[in-house]
Amino acid sequence: MQKRETTWRKLLNLHQEEYRIWLDKDEKRFQIFDKLAEDLERYVITSLQPGPYDDISIDDLCKRFVHRIPDVLGNCDNANMYDEDMAALAYAHVHLLERYRRFWDILLRLLKEAVLPMSENELEVLDVGTGPAPVLYAISDFYQLLQKFTHEKGYPSLGIPFPELSSVESSRELEQFIHAFSEVSQRSHGPYSITFRNFKGLDFNELRAETIEEAKNKWKANKGRQWHDYYDYGTQSWESYSEEMDNPMSLNGLYRYNFVIFSNFLTTESDVEMWKKELNATFLSIRHGGVVVVTGASANNKKYKPIYPIVREIAKETQLGRIKSVSGEIACEYSDIYAKRIKQHYDTVWTWIKSNSSIDDSFLESFRVGKNRIVKSLWDPDTNLQGPGSPNEFSLLAFRRNQRPPKLRRKE
Ligand SMILES: C[S@@+](CC[C@H](N)C(=O)[O-])C[C@H]1O[C@@H](n2cnc3c(N)ncnc32)[C@H](O)[C@@H]1O
User: Which of 107, 176, 175 is nearest to 144 (CA)?
Assistant: First the structure.
C-alpha cells in the first residue's frame, strides 16, 4: 500500500463520487446482491430437503419452517427465539436480503459524507447482535469492491487491507447458519464463527487489561529463557516484548474498533437501560476516526422513540460526535431493483414450498402463532412487498470519534 499523504477525509472526498458511479456501471452492486439472493434461495430450498440419512419428509420440514415464520416477523425481541427449531433459517429468509441492502445504503451515505471508516492497518469491525450477518456480508462486499476499484483505477493510497470482521451473537443456530452459508456461498473472508457470545457483561477495557496481564505473566515466567529462537525473553524489556507480540497494533490496540454496528439490536427500552454499561464500554472502544452506527425501527414509532435518546446520551458521555448529515429517518424502499429482487426471492422459495408440500394458500391465509401471522407479501406473488403494516422509514444514528479516546483508569 502506498504511503498516504493526506487525510482519509480528503481522499474519500476526492474519490467518493467516482466510486459510486463505478459501482452503478454494469450494475456491479446489483450483481453482487443478485448472487447473494441466489445463494440464499439455494440454501433455503436445500435445507428444506431431507439428507440421505434423515428420517423426515419434505412436508414436515416445510411445516416446521412455516411454523417459525410468524415468530421471526413478530417476536424478534425475544433472544431465546433465535435458537428455536428453524428460527435461523426463517430469519435469514425473511430479513437477510433487506437488511443487507439497507446496510449498503448506509455505507454509501457514510462514503458520500467522507466519514466511511478507513484504516491502513486491518479495519476492525464489530457487529453487535449479528443475526445471519447481513451487516458483515454488506461490509465484506462493499470494501472488497472498493479494493477492486482502487486497483482498477490506480489509486493505491485508497486501497486498504480486508476488514477484520468481529461479531457478538448469542444464538448457536445463527452461528451455524453463518458458518454453513459463508461456506456454500464461497466467501473466503467468512465470517465463519462468532467472536463474542453475549453482549451482557462485555467490557473491552477489562478484556484488554486481562490479556495484557496474561502476556505479562508469561513474559515474567519465561524471563531469561529463549523461546522458539524468536522471543528473547532474557534480554527484552516488557515494553519491547509486548510491542512485538503477534498483533501489529501491539497489545494496547486489542479490542479497539474502527467501526461498530448495532443493526436492529437495540429494540426495547428495557434492554437498552439494562445494557447501558456495555454500550458505554463498547463506545469507548472506538478508535480515533472510528464510527458507531445504530440502526433500527423508526424513532417515530412509539415503542422505539425512547431508545435513541439513551443511545445519544451514551455517545455524548463517551465523547463521540454525532454525524448529523448521515443520521435521521430514512425512507424504506419497496419498488427499486433491490426490492424487486427481494420479492422474487420470496416468490422462488414459496413457489417451491407450495409445489413440494401440502402447504397451500388457504393454509397460509389462516395460519397463526399466537397473534402473529405470515404476511401475504411473502407467499403470494400477486401481493406487493409493501403491505398496510410495512414501515415507511427506519432510523439511523451515526457517531464518530473526532479526537483520541478518553483515557481510562486502570483497574487495580
Ligand atoms: C433482531 S436480530 C438482528 C439481527 C441483525 N443484526 C439484523 O439487522 O437483522 C437480534 C440479534 O441479536 C441477538 N442477541 C439478542 N440478545 C443478545 C445478547 N445478549 N448477546 C448477543 N446477541 C444477542 C439475537 O440472537 C439476534 O440474532
Answer: 107
* DSSP for 157-221, written as a single string: GG--PPPEEEEE---HHHHHHHHHHHHHTT-TT---S-SBS-STT--HHHHHHHHHHHHHHHHHH
Domain extents in the chain: 8-198+333-390, 200-252
Cell reading at 384: 406487493
**Does the pLDDT at position 102 exceed 60?**
yes
Tell me the backbone φ, ψ of residue 319, rounded to 5 degrees.
60, 40
Residue the block writes with cell 457487529 = 127
- Other CB atoms within 10 A of residue 281 CB: 20
The residue to mutate among 198, 265, 271, 395, having the most atoms of ligand 1 within 8 angstroms of its beta carbon, is 265
Give the rounded percent of residues in the chain with a pLDDT score beyond 90. 81
CB of 282 closer than 6 angstroms to any ligand 1 atom: no
329 CB contacts (<8 Å, ≥6 apart)?
298, 299, 300, 393, 394, 395, 396
Question: Band of the pLDDT at 214, cuts 50, 70, 90?
Answer: confident
Q: Span 71-97, mean pLDDT?
A: 96
Mean pLDDT of 59-73: 97
Ligand 1 pocket mutation pick from 83, 125, 130 by most atoms within 8 angstroms of CB: 130
Is the backbone peptide bond immediately before 163 cis, with ω within 30 degrees of 0?
Answer: no
91 Cα: distance to centroid of ligand 1 (angstroms): 11
pLDDT at 370: 87
Q: Grade residue 251 by pLDDT with cuts at 50, 70 and 90.
A: confident
Residue 163, ligand 1, Cβ within 6 A: no
Q: Is 395 in the pocket of ligand 1 (CB under 6 A)?
A: no
Phi, psi dihedrals of residue 135, rounded to the nearest 5°: -70, -45
User: What is the number of the ligand 1 atom nearest to the C-alpha of 275?
Assistant: 19
| Cα–Cα distance, 134 to 13 (Å, whole number) | 27
DSSP label of 333: P
Residue 248's pLDDT is: 44
φ and ψ at residue 257, rounded to 5 degrees: -125, 150
69 grid coordinates: 415464520
